[in-house]
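batch_manifest entry 22 of 60
target: Solute carrier family 2, facilitated glucose transporter member 6
source organism: Salvator merianae
requested by: lab member K.T.
priority: normal
notes from requester: please return tokens only, no post-processing; we will run our own comparison against the previous entry in this batch. if the run fails, retry once and flag.
--- input ---
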Amino acid sequence: AEEPLLSRKQGDYRTLPKKDARRVEKEYYRTLKNQRLFLAAFSAVLGNFNFGFALVYTSPVIPALQKSSSPSLKLNGVMASWFGSVFTLGVAAGGLGTMYFNDRLGRKSSIMFSAVPSVIGYLFLASAQELWMLMVGRLLTGFAGGVTSASIPVYISEISHPLVRGALGSCPQIMAVLGALCLYALGLLLPWRWLAVAGEVPVLFMVLLLSFMPDSPRFLISKGKEAESVSALKWLRGEDVDYWWEYDQIRDSVNKQSNPISWAEIRQPYIFKPLGITLLMRFLQQLSGVTPVLVYLQLIFDSTEVILAPQFDAVIVGAVRLASVAVAAFTMDRAGRKLLLYISAGVMLASNLTLGFYIHYIPLLPHNSSAAVGNGTQEGQVAGLMSNGLTVIPLIATMFFIIGYAMGWGPITWLLMAEVLPLKARGVVSGLCVLVSWLTAFALTKVFLLVKETYGLEVPFFFFSVICVINLIFAYLLPETKGRSLERIEAYFQTGRKSFLESFRQHK
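--- output ---
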């Protein structure tokens, strides 16, 4: 089994002049076949589909349970709030657990393990006879979502190559949005118990497909399984390409990081800089307001006099999110990460400011205008037309906020997390990022209604606007990772910006 490793020719690439080595690298990536790579990525992101499905499960279920004829299942306002938010605590716990799972079980096995709490959680939801069973079901499905959120981006980044890593890196976000859209659509057709049964399908399909997929070559090398790593790389890249060159690059990088990360190493720039980038990005991503906007979308529309049938709200939002993430996936490897982050933060800033000023300055116009129309005066008719036109503003602003988030700060934060972290820290820190992200989401979702009642609905949106300005500044300070291999990105944090840019110019 070890014969190919011992008998193959070595040193072919190491003895080439630097310029020729860059040319070989460029030509190598162009010869790769991606069909199996795409299949492996699809198998993994089914976990994100399930995450999106589970995240918005409460959207059609809470109204149904508030009208339940069973006293043991009827939700009041407080319990409905917990039923919706306890999921985020489960996600945070799952992210914390993945700090251990990613480096012990491996990336693929961690994703497959998430099926256990997911299946059990859906069983609790489908068979619930008491409120505590609903809470346990939400907590378990949230835990599964936290595991997949931390494992899947790392798995995809490590099996991908630079030419497609941006597009594949946005697939988790696309599938999560698609899962949410699927839940919204099924919510119009199925009772709430059968929605939980339907949630089992993508989970079981994910486990079935992943059982035939390879693990990350980088993880296998880090565990001393070189023969399995070669087989995995051969399967992902194709048998008739010279995958040995990439294997050498990966092995050299892994060998430099053979020991587990220690607390002393965290103080080293090549660790704490990418660590700071990933944690701050996840923190700022949530502070930009996406979770409260999605969770309280109907409340926002009701408060701003948007006339929209409730059963169509979520479907429209889901469709807009899906289209926006698809655009980001298509452009990420062309436009680059930084440009999309700029555009994303700018669009969210404009949307939040629009919502804030609309709520602050036009709180009573629709009611006054309706009264004027009832009087039948020409001024009243003009005011009525104005109010009907103005009530479209919060809907359009919300749609643009979702578009802005979905094309930049949504998918790219997950992609950069997997790109900039060094191998030895990737498994642990990805779990830490999920923990920080969803604890922030939980706190923000809880505080949002309190701030609204105390200071007014416009205040949260002005706060989100300030965060978006910070996001613009933060995006300017980030390094561009488009077209760089993971090994080259690691070299940037070890050797500095100048050598990184010079190596990229030579690579081009």
